[in-house]
Amino acid sequence: MAIQWLVDAALVHKVNKVSKPAVPLKAYIDNASFKLFFIDIGLLGAMSELDIESLL
């Protein structure tokens, strides 16, 4: 529920794992495994506590 809120708020992008790279990808989605990617580089920098040069 919290992850869906972040996705709906456009703060992160959720990418599901697929069991094999075949067409169509949607048929091979593993809903138990996924990665979250920050959309805002400023939020990523604040949470990682890295300097700007390292992120860019």
Summarize the structure.
By secondary structure, the chain is α+β, with helices and mostly antiparallel strands.
Layout of helices and strands:
Elements: H1 2-8, E1 12-18, E2 29-38, H2 41-48, H3 52-55
Q: How is this structure best described in words?
A:
The protein is of the alpha+beta class. The mean pLDDT is 89. The protein has helices at 2-8, 41-48, 52-55; strands spanning 12-18, 29-38. It has a two-stranded antiparallel ribbon with strand order 1-2. It is built from 3 helices and 2 strands, in the order αββαα. 34% of the residues lie in helices and 30% in strands. The radius of gyration is 14 Å and the shape is elongated. The protein starts with a helix and ends with a helix.
Write a concise keyword list for the protein shown above.
56 residues; single chain; two-stranded antiparallel ribbon; alpha+beta
Regions with little confidence, pLDDT below 50 for 5+ residues? none
In terms of structural class, how would the helical and strand content be classed?
Answer: alpha+beta
Oligomer: single chain
**What share of residues are in beta strands?**
25-35%
Overall average residue pLDDT: 89
Q: Main β-sheet: number of strands, strand sense, barrel status?
A: 2 strands, antiparallel
The amount of helix comes to 25-40%
Please list the strands of the largest sheet in the order they lie side by side.
1-2
Topology pattern, helix = H, strand = E: HEEHH
Number of strands: 2
Helix count equals 3
Q: What is the rounded distance between the termini?
A: 31 Å
Over the alpha carbons, how many angstroms does the gyration radius reach?
14 Å
> What coarse outline follows from CA principal-axis ratios?
elongated
